[in-house]
Protein backbone atom coordinates (compact mmCIF):
# COMPACT_ATOMS: atom_id res chain seq x y z
CA UNK A 1 0.00 0.00 0.00
CA UNK A 2 1.41 3.37 -1.03
CA UNK A 3 2.01 5.92 1.74
CA UNK A 4 -0.33 8.90 1.69
CA UNK A 5 1.38 12.25 2.26
CA UNK A 6 -0.79 15.05 3.60
CA UNK A 7 0.03 18.72 2.82
CA UNK A 8 0.72 19.27 6.55
CA UNK A 9 3.26 16.44 6.58
CA UNK A 10 4.94 17.84 3.45
CA UNK A 11 5.22 21.29 5.05
CA UNK A 12 6.65 19.73 8.19
CA UNK A 13 9.21 17.76 6.15
CA UNK A 14 10.15 20.84 4.13
CA UNK A 15 10.65 22.76 7.37
CA UNK A 16 13.07 20.10 8.64
CA UNK A 17 14.94 20.07 5.33
CA UNK A 18 15.73 23.73 5.87
CA UNK A 19 16.75 23.35 9.51
CA UNK A 20 20.41 24.11 10.10
CA UNK A 21 22.64 21.27 11.30
CA UNK A 22 23.47 21.35 15.03
CA UNK A 23 27.11 22.33 14.46
CA UNK A 24 26.10 25.33 12.38
CA UNK A 25 23.47 26.44 14.88
CA UNK A 26 26.05 26.26 17.68
CA UNK A 27 28.48 28.30 15.60
CA UNK A 28 25.84 31.00 15.10
CA UNK A 29 24.80 30.92 18.77
CA UNK A 30 28.43 31.18 19.85
CA UNK A 31 29.00 34.23 17.68
CA UNK A 32 25.82 35.82 19.06
CA UNK A 33 26.89 35.21 22.65
CA UNK A 34 30.37 36.64 22.08
CA UNK A 35 28.86 39.72 20.41
CA UNK A 36 26.63 40.15 23.46
CA UNK A 37 29.67 39.89 25.75
CA UNK A 38 31.53 42.38 23.57
CA UNK A 39 28.65 44.87 23.70
CA UNK A 40 28.62 44.66 27.50
CA UNK A 41 32.30 45.62 27.67
CA UNK A 42 31.25 49.21 26.93
CA UNK A 43 29.09 49.30 30.04
CA UNK A 44 31.84 48.01 32.33
CA UNK A 45 34.54 50.19 30.77
CA UNK A 46 32.28 53.23 31.30
CA UNK A 47 32.10 52.35 35.01
CA UNK A 48 35.89 51.93 35.17
CA UNK A 49 36.41 55.28 33.43
CA UNK A 50 34.03 56.98 35.86
CA UNK A 51 35.88 55.37 38.79
CA UNK A 52 39.26 56.74 37.70
CA UNK A 53 37.82 60.15 36.80
CA UNK A 54 35.80 60.70 39.97
CA UNK A 55 37.85 58.99 42.68
CA UNK A 56 40.54 61.67 42.93
CA UNK A 57 41.46 64.18 45.59
CA UNK A 58 41.97 67.94 45.13
CA UNK A 59 45.54 67.38 43.81
CA UNK A 60 44.34 64.88 41.22
CA UNK A 61 45.80 61.86 43.06
CA UNK A 62 43.88 58.64 42.47
CA UNK A 63 42.18 57.57 45.69
CA UNK A 64 39.83 54.83 46.87
CA UNK A 65 37.65 54.28 49.92
CA UNK A 66 39.13 52.24 52.77
CA UNK A 67 37.45 48.92 51.96
CA UNK A 68 37.87 45.60 53.79
CA UNK A 69 40.96 44.18 52.03
CA UNK A 70 40.55 40.69 53.45
CA UNK A 71 36.93 40.52 52.32
CA UNK A 72 37.89 41.80 48.86
CA UNK A 73 40.58 39.15 48.46
CA UNK A 74 38.25 36.45 49.81
CA UNK A 75 35.35 37.29 47.46
CA UNK A 76 37.76 37.52 44.51
CA UNK A 77 39.23 34.12 45.35
CA UNK A 78 35.77 32.59 45.75
CA UNK A 79 34.69 33.83 42.31
CA UNK A 80 37.94 32.58 40.79
CA UNK A 81 37.48 29.12 42.33
CA UNK A 82 33.88 29.04 41.08
CA UNK A 83 35.18 29.81 37.58
CA UNK A 84 37.60 26.88 37.91
CA UNK A 85 34.72 24.57 38.90
CA UNK A 86 32.67 25.83 35.94
CA UNK A 87 35.54 25.03 33.54
CA UNK A 88 35.82 21.60 35.18
CA UNK A 89 32.07 21.04 34.78
CA UNK A 90 32.20 21.90 31.08
CA UNK A 91 35.22 19.63 30.50
CA UNK A 92 33.40 16.84 32.35
CA UNK A 93 30.30 17.17 30.19
CA UNK A 94 32.44 17.16 27.03
CA UNK A 95 34.03 13.91 28.30
CA UNK A 96 30.64 12.39 29.18
CA UNK A 97 31.51 12.34 32.90
CA UNK A 98 28.04 13.24 34.23
CA UNK A 99 28.76 12.71 37.92
CA UNK A 100 31.72 15.13 37.91
CA UNK A 101 29.71 17.59 35.81
CA UNK A 102 26.85 17.61 38.28
CA UNK A 103 29.10 18.01 41.32
CA UNK A 104 31.28 20.72 39.77
CA UNK A 105 28.18 22.66 38.69
CA UNK A 106 26.75 22.55 42.23
CA UNK A 107 30.09 23.83 43.57
CA UNK A 108 30.07 26.65 40.99
CA UNK A 109 26.58 27.65 42.11
CA UNK A 110 27.41 27.57 45.83
CA UNK A 111 30.61 29.57 45.38
CA UNK A 112 28.75 32.10 43.21
CA UNK A 113 26.22 32.44 46.00
CA UNK A 114 29.05 32.90 48.53
CA UNK A 115 30.52 35.67 46.36
CA UNK A 116 27.14 37.40 46.30
CA UNK A 117 26.81 37.16 50.08
CA UNK A 118 30.36 38.55 50.45
CA UNK A 119 29.72 41.59 48.27
CA UNK A 120 26.03 42.37 48.80
CA UNK A 121 25.58 40.93 52.28
CA UNK A 122 28.86 42.05 53.87
CA UNK A 123 30.72 44.67 51.79
CA UNK A 124 27.57 46.72 51.20
CA UNK A 125 27.26 47.13 54.98
CA UNK A 126 30.87 48.27 55.29
CA UNK A 127 32.72 51.57 54.92
CA UNK A 128 30.87 53.05 51.93
CA UNK A 129 27.21 54.05 52.03
CA UNK A 130 25.07 54.79 48.93
CA UNK A 131 24.82 58.45 49.99
CA UNK A 132 28.60 59.02 50.04
CA UNK A 133 28.66 61.11 46.85
CA UNK A 134 31.01 59.89 44.11
CA UNK A 135 32.33 57.12 46.39
CA UNK A 136 28.88 55.70 46.98
CA UNK A 137 27.68 56.13 43.39
CA UNK A 138 30.69 54.40 41.83
CA UNK A 139 31.06 51.68 44.46
CA UNK A 140 27.40 50.66 44.46
CA UNK A 141 27.10 51.14 40.69
CA UNK A 142 30.06 48.86 39.93
CA UNK A 143 29.37 46.18 42.52
CA UNK A 144 25.61 46.39 41.90
CA UNK A 145 25.74 45.91 38.14
CA UNK A 146 28.26 43.10 38.59
CA UNK A 147 26.12 41.43 41.27
CA UNK A 148 23.15 41.57 38.88
CA UNK A 149 25.23 39.65 36.33
CA UNK A 150 26.20 37.12 39.00
CA UNK A 151 22.50 36.61 39.80
CA UNK A 152 21.78 36.05 36.06
CA UNK A 153 24.65 33.55 35.93
CA UNK A 154 23.33 31.70 38.98
CA UNK A 155 19.89 31.43 37.34
CA UNK A 156 21.51 30.03 34.19
CA UNK A 157 23.53 27.50 36.23
CA UNK A 158 20.36 26.42 38.06
CA UNK A 159 18.54 26.04 34.72
CA UNK A 160 21.36 23.91 33.28
CA UNK A 161 21.51 21.75 36.41
CA UNK A 162 17.76 21.05 36.38
CA UNK A 163 17.97 20.18 32.67
CA UNK A 164 21.26 18.26 32.96
CA UNK A 165 19.82 15.07 31.45
CA UNK A 166 19.11 16.86 28.17
CA UNK A 167 22.80 17.40 27.42
CA UNK A 168 25.21 14.90 25.94
CA UNK A 169 28.98 14.83 25.41
CA UNK A 170 28.40 15.70 21.74
CA UNK A 171 25.59 18.26 22.12
CA UNK A 172 25.72 20.59 25.12
CA UNK A 173 25.53 24.15 23.87
CA UNK A 174 23.49 25.13 26.96
CA UNK A 175 26.40 24.13 29.20
CA UNK A 176 28.97 25.90 27.04
CA UNK A 177 26.89 29.11 26.86
CA UNK A 178 26.43 29.18 30.64
CA UNK A 179 30.16 28.57 31.13
CA UNK A 180 31.10 31.40 28.75
CA UNK A 181 28.73 33.76 30.56
CA UNK A 182 30.00 32.75 34.02
CA UNK A 183 33.65 33.19 33.01
CA UNK A 184 32.76 36.55 31.49
CA UNK A 185 31.37 37.67 34.84
CA UNK A 186 34.70 36.56 36.35
CA UNK A 187 36.70 38.50 33.73
CA UNK A 188 34.78 41.67 34.63
CA UNK A 189 35.66 41.19 38.31
CA UNK A 190 39.32 40.62 37.35
CA UNK A 191 39.35 44.33 36.40
CA UNK A 192 36.90 45.59 39.03
CA UNK A 193 38.86 44.08 41.95
CA UNK A 194 42.08 46.12 41.47
CA UNK A 195 40.08 49.20 40.50
CA UNK A 196 37.99 49.11 43.67
CA UNK A 197 40.33 47.57 46.24
CA UNK A 198 43.96 47.96 45.17
CA UNK A 199 44.63 51.05 43.04
CA UNK A 200 45.01 54.48 44.62
CA UNK A 201 45.54 55.89 48.07
CA UNK A 202 43.04 54.60 50.64
CA UNK A 203 41.03 57.36 52.29
CA UNK A 204 38.69 57.15 55.24
CA UNK A 205 35.14 58.29 54.52
CA UNK A 206 32.89 59.99 57.07
CA UNK B 1 41.11 16.32 24.16
CA UNK B 2 40.91 13.35 26.53
CA UNK B 3 39.34 13.71 29.97
CA UNK B 4 42.51 13.61 32.04
CA UNK B 5 44.29 16.15 29.89
CA UNK B 6 41.28 18.48 29.95
CA UNK B 7 41.00 18.26 33.76
CA UNK B 8 44.75 18.85 34.14
CA UNK B 9 44.55 21.93 31.93
CA UNK B 10 41.72 23.37 34.05
CA UNK B 11 43.83 22.79 37.18
CA UNK B 12 46.97 24.42 35.74
CA UNK B 13 45.08 27.48 34.51
CA UNK B 14 43.31 27.80 37.86
CA UNK B 15 46.66 27.61 39.71
CA UNK B 16 48.13 30.27 37.42
CA UNK B 17 45.14 32.53 38.12
CA UNK B 18 45.45 31.97 41.87
CA UNK B 19 49.18 32.80 41.83
CA UNK B 20 48.55 35.93 39.74
CA UNK B 21 45.87 37.06 42.20
CA UNK B 22 48.38 36.64 45.01
CA UNK B 23 50.99 38.60 43.04
CA UNK B 24 48.40 41.31 42.44
CA UNK B 25 47.77 41.65 46.16
CA UNK B 26 51.49 41.77 46.96
CA UNK B 27 52.08 44.44 44.27
CA UNK B 28 49.33 46.61 45.78
CA UNK B 29 50.93 46.36 49.23
CA UNK B 30 54.62 46.68 48.29
CA UNK B 31 54.85 48.99 45.29
CA UNK B 32 51.34 50.05 44.22
CA UNK B 33 51.32 50.74 40.51
CA UNK B 34 48.08 50.99 38.54
CA UNK B 35 49.83 50.05 35.28
CA UNK B 36 51.38 46.92 36.81
CA UNK B 37 48.11 45.88 38.45
CA UNK B 38 46.22 46.28 35.18
CA UNK B 39 48.94 44.34 33.36
CA UNK B 40 48.40 41.42 35.73
CA UNK B 41 44.63 41.80 35.28
CA UNK B 42 45.04 41.61 31.48
CA UNK B 43 47.15 38.44 31.77
CA UNK B 44 44.49 36.87 34.03
CA UNK B 45 41.71 37.90 31.63
CA UNK B 46 43.65 36.47 28.66
CA UNK B 47 44.04 33.13 30.45
CA UNK B 48 40.32 32.97 31.22
CA UNK B 49 39.23 34.05 27.73
CA UNK B 50 41.50 31.52 26.04
CA UNK B 51 41.43 28.46 28.31
CA UNK B 52 38.04 28.74 30.07
CA UNK B 53 35.91 30.62 27.51
CA UNK B 54 37.61 28.94 24.50
CA UNK B 55 37.45 32.00 22.25
CA UNK B 56 39.34 30.06 19.52
CA UNK B 57 36.20 27.98 18.95
CA UNK B 58 34.79 31.02 17.13
CA UNK B 59 37.13 30.22 14.25
CA UNK B 60 36.97 26.45 14.44
CA UNK B 61 34.53 23.85 13.13
CA UNK B 62 33.13 22.06 16.15
CA UNK B 63 29.87 20.44 17.21
CA UNK B 64 29.41 21.36 20.91
Describe the structure.
- The complex is a heterodimer of chains A (206) and B (64).
- Chain A has 206 residues and is mainly α.
- In chain A, 73% of the residues lie in helices and 3% in strands.
- Chain A has a single domain, classed as Cytochrome c oxidase, subunit III, four-helix bundle (Four Helix Bundle (Hemerythrin (Met), subunit A), Up-down Bundle).
- Chain A has six helices and two strands; from the N terminus they run ααβααααβ.
- In chain A, helix 2 runs antiparallel to helix 5 (133-162), helix 3 packs antiparallel against helix 6 (173-198) and helix 5 runs antiparallel to helix 6 (173-198).
- Chain B has 64 residues and is mostly helical.
- In chain B, helix 1 runs antiparallel to helix 2 (34-52).
- The longest helix of chain B is centred in the N-terminal third of the chain and has 28 residues, at 3-30.
- The two termini of chain B are 13 Å apart.
- The interface between A and B is large, with 43 and 38 residues.
Layout of helices and strands:
The complex is a heterodimer of chains A (206) and B (64).
Chain A: H1 7-17, H2 22-54, E1 63-65, H3 69-94, H4 98-122, H5 133-162, H6 173-198, E2 201-203
Helix pairs in contact in A: 2-5, 2-6, 3-4, 3-6, 4-5, 5-6
Chain B: H1 3-30, H2 34-52
Helix pairs in contact in B: 1-2
Contiguous uncertain segments of 5+ residues of chain A: none
- Strands ordered across the widest β-sheet of chain A: 1-2
Q: For the terminal residues of chain B, how far apart are their CA atoms?
A: 13 Å
- Mean model confidence by pLDDT of chain B: 92
Oligomer: heterodimer
Give the CATH topology of chain A: Four Helix Bundle (Hemerythrin (Met), subunit A)
Number of E-state strands of chain A: 2
What are the secondary-structure elements of chain A, in order, as H or E?
Answer: HHEHHHHE
What is the percent of helical residues of chain A? over 70%
If you compute it from the alpha carbons, what radius of gyration of chain A comes out, rounded to the nearest whole angstrom?
Answer: 22 Å
Count up the domains of chain A.
1
Helix content, binned percent of chain B: over 70%
